[in-house]
Amino acid sequence: MKLWSSYLKELKLSSKGFYFYVEIAMTVILLIVLLFVIPENYTGTQEEYLTLDLPKSAEEMFVSELEKEDKDGKAEVIELKLKKRVILADLYEWEGQEVYIIEDEKDMIDLAEKDRPLIGASLSWNEESSSLKYDYYIQGYESDRLKNFYKIINNKNINQIVENSNAVEVKSLETGYEQLNTRQTALPALLTFNGSLMGMFIMAAYIFLDKGEGVIKAYAVT
Asked: How many CB atoms sit inside 10 A of residue 205's CB?
């Protein structure tokens, strides 16, 4: 009971200060952001920019595979803005994925540099090996593991890669847990941000206090 009475006493003293209400206001704002701005389960859409430099038959086969995946079964012609120009692109879209087919390779590279999609790639035909050649244009911050994956994904049988991946035995240290949703994952960051803001408010208060009372000037005169 003594602890509770001390807590109530401190709470009453704090409520007389300005920062108490600033903290309440910031808590309300962060709560609104958490409930109404951050989705409960966020599923992002991955964008890929491609150019095709293939024989006619190979290009038709590749496009037909994209059409099978597309939710409408056909490409949508859209306009992409690049500086002061407008570039036409064929968009193939399905769940969690958007593939843009861009005619000119230089335009694709410039758009990839501007929009930073997941992948920018150029597909061409290798006459010597009679196979597809993939040139990837990455952002530069990708991990070595992802870069190595890009190197082997088109040189190996994808089915074999999936089979080897499924053959790896994974043991969970704990069972019966639930995966956190997007809001729950964002909560620790928001709480840390709220605490940091309080420190900034205190620093700002000291600056204005010094301007009002002239502490630094007093030190200079001394």
From this structure: 13
pLDDT the model gives residue 101: 92
DSSP 143: -
Nearest to 97 by CA among 61, 70, 123: 70
Q: Across residues 137-162, what is the average pLDDT?
A: 77
For range 47-63, the mean pLDDT:
88
Long-range contacts of 166-172 (CB under 8 A, 24+ apart): none
Taking the alpha carbons at both ends of the chain, their separation in whole angstroms is 50
Check: CB of residue 190 under 8 Å from CB of residue 26.
no
Nearest by Cα to 138 from 112, 162, 114, 115: 112
What pLDDT is recorded for position 156? 62
Query: Over the Cα atoms of the chain, what is R_g?
Result: 28
Packing angle, helices 182-213 and 18-32, rounded to 10: 150
Q: How far is CA 55 from CA 59, 131, 169, in A?
A: 6, 11, 42
Inter-helix orientation angle 144-153/158-167, to 10°: 130
